[in-house]
Amino acid sequence: MKIGSPIRKVILFSTLGGLLCGIHLTLYFLRDFAPWMLFNFLIGVLCLWAALLVGSAPKCNISDTSGTDEPS
């Protein structure tokens, strides 16, 4: 039973969705380049980076039941 993989997918897709939604809403309401668009983009990139770090961390792999940390 793999628990880690679906959680990573949910984190990744929700982060991407939030990033796209933030950019779209900023463009819709302001209609031109503004500091808020850059701010939303940077927040989205930081969230995506954190999600990727969590997803690729070997110590956070819940589905690993082999008992060893070494790759086979």
Biggest sheet record:
none
> β content, as a range?
under 5%
Average pLDDT taken over every residue: 67
Low-confidence segments? none
Number of contiguous helices: 2
Structure description:
The longest helix has 27 residues, at 4-30. The model has no long low-confidence stretch (mean pLDDT 67). This protein has one domain (4-57). The chain contains 2 helices and no strands. The protein has helices at 4-30, 35-56. It has 72 residues and is mainly alpha-helical.
Which secondary structure elements does this structure contain, and how are they paired or packed?
Elements: H1 4-30, H2 35-56
Entry summary:
With 72 residues, the protein is mainly α. The chain is 68% helix and 0% strand. It has one domain.
Question: What are the defining features of this structure?
Answer:
72 residues, mainly alpha, 2 helices, elongated
